Amino acid sequence: MEFSSRARQRHARLAGDRREQYPHSLQFYLEPPTESISLVEFESFAIDRLRLLKVIENLGVSYVRSSDAYKVKLETELRKLKFPYRALAEDDYEARRKDHISHFILRLAYCQSEDLRRWFLQQEMDLFRYRFSQLTESLMQKFLEHVNLSFEALTARSLPSIQSDERLQPLLNHLSHSYVGPDYSVQKNTGKISLDQIDALSVKSFPLCMRQLHRALRDSHHLRHGGRMQYGLFLKGIGLTLEQALEFWKKEFIRGKVDADKFDKGYAYSIRHNYGQEGKRTDYTPYSCMKIIMSNPPSQGDYHGCPFRHSDPELLKQKLQSYKIPPSGIAQVLELVKGMHYQLACQKYFELTHDVDDIGFSLNHPNQYFTESQKLLSGGREPKKEFNNSGNFQQKNNSQESINSSSTPTSSNAKDDTELEGLEAYFTED
Ligand code: SF4
Question: From atom 2 of ligand 1, which residue's Cα is the shortest distance away?
Answer without folding.
Answer: 289
